[in-house]
Amino acid sequence: MKIQINGNINEYYVQTLCMLFFSGVKFSKTDNGESDGLSADVSVTDFGTGAAATVTLKTEKGIATCTHSEQKSIGAKVSAEQIACGKAFFEAGKKLTGITPSWGILTGVRPAKLAIGGIVDETSKKEVRDSLTREYLVTPKKASLVTEIAAIEKKLLEKADTSACSLYISIPFCPSRCSYCSFVSFTSAKLLGLLDSYLIRLCQEINQTIDCIENLGIKIATVYIGGGTPTTLNEKQLEILLDTITARIDPSTLQEFTVEAGRPDTITSEKLNIIKNHGVTRVSINTQTLNDDVLEIVGRKHTAADFYRAFEMARKAEIPVINTDLIAGLPGEGFGSFSETIDAMIKLRPENLTFHTLCIKNAADFAHNKANINAWHTFNETSKCVDYSQLSAKNAGYIPYYIYRQKNTVDNLENVGFALPGTEGLYNIYMMEEIHSIFAVGAGAVSKMVSRDGRTIERIFEYKYPYEYLAETNGLKNEEKVKKINEFYQNIW
Fold first, then answer.
1. Which of 85, 283, 388, 446 is the most exposed place for a label (fewest CB within 10 A)?
2. How many domains would you assign to the chain?
3. Residue 148: what pLDDT?
């Protein structure tokens, strides 16, 4: 898609607006055939008391032009130029494609962050909902959802220690790669052979990082071991990792200790008992769907029966909180199949249920079949699945406690975490709302340093791949990382 911009508007913002109507689109600055007949001409003008925008969208099937003017507002979180551009684009896109995005022109990853500051009481909740529908064209249903989540998050965050931090530990290995996965995750026998060496280096970095945290006088609130699939580690390797952590951190001092045991085909009773005995309070056991045919299509090397087996083992291990992830919009699955999965999961009653919407990122195997994305689902079929999952969870006593959105998600929908009251995944909230620093270790991990007032965020990236992480220069890189952290806390925090 070719984009032409005149005026003071961010190109990336325009691109995100394009993706609301043209899923998976790529962008080009020339008419060399890469634009696939798509173009967007955007013109924004500041007229002193406000701004006006005109947007023209072209496809091989037609053309649509819309103009919108927006008055400047004191204290507004978004500029008049951006709102004018968004609304003009929204109307042109709707006219040309017939699509009405349920999230309007709200394109950010963290919609609750926009809402949370305005919530004080029930009256202010209504004002926030009205603002989302009026200023951002969000549907009343989505505005109510995000306002409810923001209100729940606000109560939890009021109890949070913003001077604390969280520790994230990356295990970027899986037994096989799911077709929708975009994470750095290694599955071949040769790369899985790096696990022993990786674990040695990882444990060294865990100790170095905890040294750094202790020297700064910071308390660790939550620990999250993610991946990949951490239970790709065998029993001995898993025990080594958890021994390293609990030798330095008393689990009883943590608000939450999570291990993603995401793939049922990696879970054994012995692993779960090791996890429980090391004070872990939360595990994820994920199936994404209970339809075996769909599991095969997406490359999950397990069955629904495997999931039930793993879930029952986790219950017997008496781990306090079990989370289960499900994905709406998977190829081969319609509303009937997905709703059956939801009904079965509600009966199983894990403490946490996370409802994702299929997102096709460039690093995923599915990205090679982008031409077939629209053929995988009927428009609004996935929306129906998402609505059903959320309504069913609420009716069963779950509350929505965190939300995030991604680009190139089917029908521009959202990912929402639900929890039985009192079992909310705190790391998810702390990470999403960026209320304190996340110290991250391991290949592909990203540390996020957050200032005390939350206004300054600095990211520190690890080597992306395990073989880079294991290189001799890694020790030097970790010294540089510690130096950057110390400088941040001395100069900014």
1. 446
2. 2
3. 95
